[in-house]
TrEMBL record:
<comment type="similarity">
    <text>Belongs to the ustYa family.</text>
</comment>
<keyword id="KW-0812">Transmembrane</keyword>
<protein>
    <recommendedName>
        <fullName>Oxidase ustYa</fullName>
    </recommendedName>
</protein>
<dbReference type="InterPro" id="IPR021765">
    <property type="entry name" value="UstYa-like"/>
</dbReference>
<keyword id="KW-1133">Transmembrane helix</keyword>
<dbReference type="GO" id="GO:0043386">
    <property type="term" value="P:mycotoxin biosynthetic process"/>
</dbReference>
<feature type="transmembrane region" description="Helical">
    <location>
        <begin position="6"/>
        <end position="23"/>
    </location>
</feature>
<comment type="pathway">
    <text>Mycotoxin biosynthesis.</text>
</comment>
<dbReference type="Pfam" id="PF11807">
    <property type="entry name" value="UstYa"/>
</dbReference>
<keyword id="KW-0560">Oxidoreductase</keyword>
<dbReference type="GO" id="GO:0016491">
    <property type="term" value="F:oxidoreductase activity"/>
</dbReference>
<keyword id="KW-0472">Membrane</keyword>
């Protein structure tokens, strides 16, 4: 029972924050390079237009059991794409491209793991849920959204407390649809071992 309560709470918090993560206006330093794959950028070299998004509640679709709705969020490539190495390398034996998973898709995957784990109450799923919980925690902290959300005081436990649902708050975002279109048009090549 406690597992279900924790999972439900995690799903609510993660769903709330994913919109900021997906639409974040954070512009990363494009001159840093990937430490796990030296010589490659850490960010996909694509410009995403800035947009605003007003958080809503009661939106049709995307419920716990709406598999088809959730599937529409994922690019055909499952988020993997090949990225070219900048032409600064003098070693002709170095690979000119490497395959990467775009973090937004990993984040969507984790939300889907929470959703499926909660909806089906899967046993043996805890390890994957824990990985995703830790991953999403770090992503939320990394993006540190400073959007202000209106206080909605309420009576809880016999006393007035501060609360915020985030509904109606306007977030400065990046257009995730442009990224999905890019990934659909630029899937990764065959797996290299």
């Amino acid at each position: 029972m406690a597992y279900c309560i924790v999972l439900a709470f995690t799903l609510q918090i993660s769903t709330f924050y994913v919109f900021y993560i997906l639409y974040s206006s954070h512009v990363a330093n494009r001159h840093t390079y990937h430490t796990e794959t030296p010589g490659f950028p850490t960010q996909l070299p694509i410009d995403l237009p800035a947009i605003q998004m007003t958080l809503q509640t009661g939106e049709p679709g995307f419920s716990l059991y709406a598999d088809a709705d959730w599937a529409t969020l994922f690019p055909a490539s499952d988020g993997f794409t090949d990225v070219a190495r900048p032409s600064t390398s003098s070693n002709p034996n170095e690979a000119s491209t490497a395959t990467f998973l775009v973090s937004m898709v990993h984040q969507l995957h984790c939300l889907d793991v929470f959703r499926v784990g909660f909806a089906t109450n899967r046993t043996g799923y805890a390890h994957h849920v824990e990985h995703c919980l830790r991953y999403m925690l770090q992503i939320v902290l990394c993006h540190a959204d400073t959007t202000l959300e209106a206080d909605e005081p309420g009576m809880r436990g016999g006393r007035w407390t501060h609360a915020a649902g985030g509904v109606g708050s306007v977030h400065e975002c990046r257009d995730w649809r442009v990224l999905k279109e890019y990934l659909d048009a630029h899937p990764a090549g065959p797996v290299r071992v």
